[in-house]
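Researcher: Here's a chain I'd like modeled. Treat it as a single chain, no partners, no ligands.
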Amino acid sequence: MIVLKPRQPAPELNVDTLQGSWSLNDQKPKNFNMLVFYRGLHCPICSKYIGELDKLAEDFAESGVSILALSSDGKERAQQAYENWGLKKLNLGYDVSVEQAQAWGLHRSAGRGKTSAGIEEPAEFSEPGLFLTRPDNTLYWGQISTMPFARPHFRDILGALGFVLANDYPARGELV
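Model: Modeled as a single isolated chain. Structure tokens:
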């Protein structure tokens, strides 16, 4: 299992999105890139979580944060999630490979049939992760989970970013 360390270069990330090709190296946010790895269309918690992020996308943009939500779902399922979840502002990445998920330290799970949303889980998929990278593509903050539950609240992240930016708060957890 790879453990990413703050203040170190983030893994390379190149993915297809509903808006075209996307590369982390090409992103030039004012303050941070926020990568939100979600489980996929089948996850009812992701629907609410990514929906909340969509509602706050402009607030993040005002804080100088560029957002990409992404999963191992294929293009069709990503498009279906975008439409079914009523998203309007987010760009969704798709086809995150096993190797990409592993490079970011994400946990992987095997599908177990239909979820409570009535949608079949893929044979394999990644569990949630959320990462903030600086414009120089070093990791500022990371959170990964083995479960779909108890994810960081986006309003809390916005509040923390206000403090971080006002106080030039350094990335923590950098010691080996």
